[in-house]
Amino acid sequence: MGIESIIILIIVGAVAGWLAGQIVSGYGFGLIGNIAVGIVGAFIAGLILPRIGLSLGGGWLAAIIHATIGAVILLALLKVVKRA
Hints:
Layout: H1 3-23, H2 30-48, H3 60-83
């Protein structure tokens, strides 16, 4: 993985984490936390979305949407676990 790929991963993770924090109320983890949530969310979405037949295509926007969906799922699961 080159330095360009790592920078893109960080940017997409930060944007996706921030968007997920805006969608799921009560969550804001700061810049580093948003990047982590976005990256983990992208991984979760990469596991779940192809299995249900959802394909978003390629490019920056698709990567951000993909990671945001996974990050929202992650934050929703964290919210459920926190209540229990």
